[in-house]
Amino acid sequence: MWRTRVGYAGGDRQDPTYQSLGDQSECIQIDFDPTVISYEELVDLMFALHDPSADPGYAQYRSLILTSDDEQLAIAHERAEAVSAELGKPLATRIEPLKEFWPAEDYHQKYYLRNDRTLLSQFRGMLGGSELELRDSTAAMRVNGYVAGAGTRARLEGELDSFGLSDSARTHLFSLVGETASGSACPLP
After folding, report:
1. Which of 2, 49, 147, 179 is least crowded, fewest Cβ atoms below 10 Å from its Cβ?
2. Greatest CA separation found in the chain?
């Protein structure tokens, strides 16, 4: 089962919100299947998606890897050392155990899907209007990625049946996806 949720972590402020983050950072939490993608591959992807040597100057946007166990901590440090050596400079990325993850407000979850009325209506109907179910839905996560421009028609064809969409919503989603990946920095696994 794959799931993603956006939220706040890495600081000490309790119950942060977008308007009141304190020392927390905006981040994404990923539940992943290690038989499909390894933790090391996820860490490498994180480093590839931005300049990990840049310090944004704000806690909100800092580069941060938060781990759930000692094995992940060791892998993250090992990959950071390799990336630092490749870049020839130290990284600004913080690596530490996760203390607590605070989910962001509902309107931040599945952002691209939320901005497509046709598909959002489908998911709200399928999930009984539950924001928690939408946030934690693997199908919503996958569709959000396609709407954001990640993924190809060939990949979509291979998994479209698993989303539970109506024929009209399927056609709509398919029309949004180009023949090849759109150049999005974050490919769908």
Report:
1. 179
2. 51
Is the Cα dihedral 141, 146, 151, 156 positive or negative? positive
Residues 142-178: tens digit of each pLDDT:
999 999 998 899 999 999 999 999 999 999 999 999 7
**Tens digit of each residue's pLDDT (9 = 90 or more) over 112-143:** 999 999 999 999 999 999 999 999 999 999 99
The H or E element containing residue 44 is helix 39-48
pLDDT per residue over 61-84, tens digit each? 999 999 999 999 999 999 999 999
DSSP at 61: G
DSSP string, 117-180: HHHHHHHHHHTTT-HHHHHH-HHHHHHHHHHHT-S-HHHHHHHGGGG---HHHHHHHHHHS-SS
Q: Which two tokens stand for residue 80?
A: 């950071």
Across-strand partners of 112? none
